[in-house]
Amino acid sequence: MARKSPPPKLPPAEDLVKIVSDAIVNFRGTSDELESAIGMLFLGHAFGWRIMYMVHSMATVRKYERILGIVAKDVFPESTELSNRSLAYKAHSTISNFWKAVKGEKRPEGFTDRAIN
User: Fold this and answer.
1) What's the pTM?
2) What crossing angle do the helices spanning 58-68 and 13-26 adopt, rounded to 10°?
């Protein structure tokens, strides 16, 4: 049986509820964008901001930050114990320049998947 990682350390529930409530009240747009932004809020805390920049374009992260009224790097950890479950994170950790990897300027040899296993 696979060893389970500890649950992600989330900020106090009141803080998350406030961010989500404010986003809902102030949001104008399609519901799928709001849902995705809220999903990023929770996954960002679980996996860290580096993973969010790998699975979303920088423009998408910025859009979700605007919806939520946050800055990912200010509210998410850089990485967590769960980060290593991301194949993208494992592959990109072999590249010395994270931002070049995120922008696609450098790709790990044989890398084709962004899945979390």
Assistant:
1) 0.72
2) 90
Please list the residues that pair with 86 across neighbouring strands.
116
Q: What is the pLDDT along the chain (117 residues), one digit of tens a residue?
A: 555 666 667 788 899 999 999 999 999 999 999 999 999 999 999 999 999 998 899 999 999 999 999 999 999 999 888 888 877 676 666 665 655 666 666 555 655 555 555
Place of tokens 């479950």: 85
Structure tokens at 7: 């649950």
Nearest to 85 by CA among 50, 35, 37, 58: 50
> Are 114 and 55 within 8 A, CB to CB?
yes
Instruction: Name the H helices within the chain.
Output: 13-26, 31-47, 49-55, 58-68, 72-75, 87-92, 98-102
